[in-house]
Amino acid sequence: DQRSRILSQRTADVRATCIDEGFHDQQVEFWATSIWDQSLYRAWTQVIYFLVPNATVIENMLRKLAELLDARELILYERTTCLVVTHITRGVETRNPYADRFERISSILKTHKHSMAKHTGTNASEVSFAEMQIKTGDFMFFITRLTENTNIAVVMPGDEAAFNAARINVQLARREFEHLDIAEKKGGKETQ
């Protein structure tokens, strides 16, 4: 289709320029995105992931937390943009047919933040929420703050006791993740 042809042509043009400027082929990636669907979130998520210097450490810690919580899935979001930083998927959730579910959740969270900003008369970047919960017969979901710069979404089996224990354990795990924040604010000043 036309979109694929345009992407192929632009990719070839950029690759040629990169080679002329001394960039190796593996240093440049291309994503076909649109403002009309979640593909833009997926592309930005990839950019965010490459910018996180300790992504592997974070993933290992999330994997341990997922096992402790018996969570099907943990998704780490950057708080301001609602973009996925990384995720851990376990058990039956690995067969989830919705490959774009993270981008869909990003879009929903972003829309929710803009709605809250509109109704409170503040900027969307200043708006945050303490916790959001969704409970169905098949699963339970909550998203809450993990660090100053991140939110964590937890997908659990439909067991109320395990769900409540997971909420408490995420609160307790916060201090273990705080030192991994990319930028910590100390005394009103950002440090790295």
From TrEMBL:
GO-annotated cellular components: fungal-type vacuole membrane; Gtr1-Gtr2 GTPase complex; nucleus
GO terms under biological process: cellular response to starvation; negative regulation of autophagy; positive regulation of TORC1 signaling
Statement: the UniProt record of this protein carries the keyword GTP-binding: yes
Single GO MF annotation: GTP binding
Domain of life: Eukaryota
Entry keyword annotation includes DNA damage: no
Keyword annotations: GTP-binding, Nucleotide-binding
Pfam families, per database record: Gtr1_RagA
Family as reported in the entry's similarity comment: Belongs to the GTR/RAG GTP-binding protein family.
PANTHER family membership: RAS-RELATED GTP BINDING RAG/GTR YEAST, RAS-RELATED GTP-BINDING PROTEIN
Entry function: GTPase involved in activation of the TORC1 signaling pathway, which promotes growth and represses autophagy in nutrient-rich conditions.
Subunit relationships: Component of the GSE complex.
Protein name: GTP-binding protein
Organism from which the protein derives: Hortaea werneckii (Black yeast)
